[in-house]
Amino acid sequence: MSAGRGGLYRSRLEEMDEEALSYLSSLAEDQEILLEDIEGTEAHVIMLCEQGIIPRDDAAKILLALEELREKVLQGELRLEGGYEDVHELIESKVIEKLGIEVGGKLHTGRSRNDQVALDIRLRIRRLLLELWRAALKLAEELLSRAEKELETPMIHYTHLQHAQIGYVSQYLLAHLDHLLRDIERMESCYRRTNKSPLGACAVAGSTLPLNRELVARLLGFDGVVENSVDAVSSRDFALEALSAAAIMMTNLSRIAEDIIIWSTSEFGYLELPDSLASPSSIMPHKKNPCILELLRAKTAKVIGLLAGSLALMKGIPTGYDRDLQEGKPMIWEALKETRSSLMMMAKTIRLVRFNADRLREAVEQSYAPAIELTEALMKHAGLSLREAHKLVGYMVKLLHEQGRALKTLKPEELSAAASRVLGKSIIVPPEILERAIEPAEIMRQRMTLGSASPQEIRRMLEKRREALNQAWARLREVENNLLLARQFFEESLEKIAKK
Prior knowledge:
Blueprint: H1 18-24, H2 27-30, H3 34-50, H4 56-74, H5 87-99, H6 101-104, H7 113-149, E1 154-159, E2 162-168, H8 169-194, H9 213-219, H10 229-234, H11 237-263, E3 271-272, H12 291-315, H13 328-352, E4 354-355, H14 357-366, H15 371-381, H16 386-403, H17 412-423, H18 431-438, H19 440-446, H20 455-498
Antiparallel strand pairs: 1-2, 3-4
């Protein structure tokens, strides 16, 4: 039996208009959930058999037919051909063509495409979230490893893209590692809410058949079920959360990309990309363009747009299942895949980029950024208030800038003379105190605050982040192991019914 022009479900309706069917069909994007649809259907059939809803012999035939289809998918032999509304109709039609409607027609018992597609989307997002989780952890490893290598490589930290304070490359990298660890926490949290089974909700209000929803959830490695059947088929907040987490992650990656792009320019010269991650010009032989990082910025805009589109799609849909949701699937796949590839490219970039320590040190030595430490030294050792010290140091920076001198060239007598002119009072700052306040290497060793750019704090944070990263890897391995155990249970249950 062949469905023909979306005919499998058209018990009441006449044959569908060909152009309308093409407009309606989701086959083009359903390739993404083809394996998930077969896997979910197999779990459903196992449950139907275990509950005595369909005979074991029929269940065995259906499962073997589904396994044949699964193998064809893995071999690239099953194509999502036209004439069907979606992957669900195609798979069921293929089984009915092989087994006849008397046996194959039992496959969909107690199930609607509404809870079926909700299941497929959760399975697919779950897989993509695990890929993102692993890719993010690999980037985190690169950030931590590079921070350890650049432990005391000095650099200017910026606010408003102007020199702010001096610090270390390692602290910059650790800051983005902390961003990423929070991104990973969001992925973990989203995974827990995604990893619930909606199957058994039927169309929207459940079934009169004794469906065992918990068994299906266990077979598929879910942590439980989406209990309320209306919620199970109508909710997509888990998908929106995945897109949101991806958009936040991409935004963080885009900021790193922007920094590297700026710092790789001739004007800064703080770092250099490897040739393998740079692009040439078609006409300018000297160019070394950071095109991959520019594309990452653009892909970030795309992912943000896909999140906005998904939110807009959901905002006006009545509760229950509506076909509008079909258009949300490709936005999910695209956003999560773009994020995954961007994580992988950023990991390579962090591993291979070369920091120009000499240029970074030169920038630090010539900077007026130690002004804040000089201000604090005047408060501690000359008894000035913050505003007095701020006024005096601001005057000195202006004077030195006009003279083309670095702050580190300031002499104690110049500071005392300036205090008399600016504040109307004399101060005495011992030479050794002044030197410690304006010498970059000395400044960073004096910092006392938690999480600051000081060697001891950087080392402490490195150790703490290594521990946090090890724990994050352990949580991922636990999740993956749980899925492996569930898969073993699934295969044993399938073999028990469908053994030849």
